[in-house]
Amino acid sequence: MTSIKKILLGEQGLVVIFLLAFAVVALTVPNFLTERNMLGLLQSVVTIGIVACTMMFCLASRDFDLSVGSTVAFTGMIAVMASNATGSIFLGLLAALAGGFIVGLFNGVVIAKFRINALITTLATMQIVRGLALISSDGRAVGINDPSFYQLALSKFLGIPTPIWVMLLLFVVFGFVLNRTVFGKNTLAIGGNPEASRLAGVNVVSMRVWIFALQGLVCGIAGILLASRITSGQPNAATGLELSVISACVLGGVSLAGGRAAMLGVIVGVLIMGIAENVMNLLNIQAFYQYVVRGCILLIAVLLDNLRSNIVGFRG
Fold this sequence. Notes:
By secondary structure, this protein is mainly α.
């Protein structure tokens, strides 16, 4: 029985379960497999997918970041406002990336160097950054002056929208970083046992700072693409994003206790989140029910993480 649980809860088992569920949905939900719907589905998970790439590292190192939604909205605002002020989209993008990096770096320094709990730190940052976005725009959406900014989201390559390619590229890059670099191995080592990692020569403080800095930088990328897609800087954008991203990661096998992560699992988790919402839209289910579904998915994700942790000798 234990071996069966290992298979079902492991990375391969998760993929098999996902494929079976995908097949059922494809056969029972009208218009699900159309090209337009598939591209729309992938477009809808771009923000979650991009942010999940680095949330995976946060969770794997026994941390998490509740400020990602606010950071995405804030960096989107920076991109639009800086582009409008300077007349240069390039400078606007640089400003947004710098803003995201600074927010992440601030989180990392406070958490790692001053040893403040990640929950409290990122909860505070979530409020501060969202407040800055609202203050800078007086609580209103900021329009884009240069229509070229829209092309970041509207442009296509081989018939597939550019934001999807960006998400796929980040999946590949951070999957490589996790599995093939010292940075990835040290991240998992810190999550498994921080003290043992420190004694083995890993600079735990520096690693944690850089993980959060990367998280902020990636939120900047997500914020830019989101602002381009919704054609404005929205201070209230990406509300609740942090819970969706954490749900996707934990569904994909990233352990809340740290030390375990797999990019393939995270991708499957992201797709599960997107498909759940997509199916409800196709079936004309009221948007209010999506909150219930997201909450249920988060609860299921935590229960699965608990099951994985309780299986002796399990490796994701």
